[in-house]
Amino acid sequence: MKNSSLKKLATTLWGLACILALPLALHAQSIRVNWRLSAPFSSYKTYEWVSSPEDNHPFYRQYVDEYVNYALKKKKHMQQVSAQQSPDLRVEYRFLTQETMDTNTTYWGTGGWGGWGMGGWGWGMGGMGWGMGGMGFANTRQVPRTIGILTIDMFDTRTNKLVWRGQATEDSVDVGNKNEEKQVAMSIFKMMKRFPPPLK
Question: Spelled out in words, what is the top-level CATH class assigned to the domain 28-192?
Answer without folding.
Answer: alpha beta
